[in-house]
Amino acid sequence: MACVAVTWARPESTYTDKWDNINVDEILESNRLLKGYVDCLLGKGRCTPDGKALKETLPDALEHECVKCIGKQKSGADKVIRHLVNKRPDLWKELAVKYDPDNIYQARYKDKIDAVKGSA
Question: Which CATH number do you get for residue 32?
Fold first, then answer.
């Protein structure tokens, strides 16, 4: 669901790679950093420039199955999803309520979500 490496779309067919060198592991290992990104995505806190870009891009990435994501962005998204599903289901649930209130994406990506459960 959340893809820290994904950012706003360029007119071209992929998202910008401007934020691709962000250390996703560092964010996931820090409750403070992770909470900051989640609060940004939920509209509960201030956003860093990359957090703002993620917030703007996330709905499009969900809607279009991350088709504009490059490989590094997809692997970052997978890592974030695996972490949230297995280690921070509370945050996963909050993000799902905000970005998937009708359970469309949870249903669409059910097999992928089920596949990462227990594989943190």
Answer: 1.10.2080.10
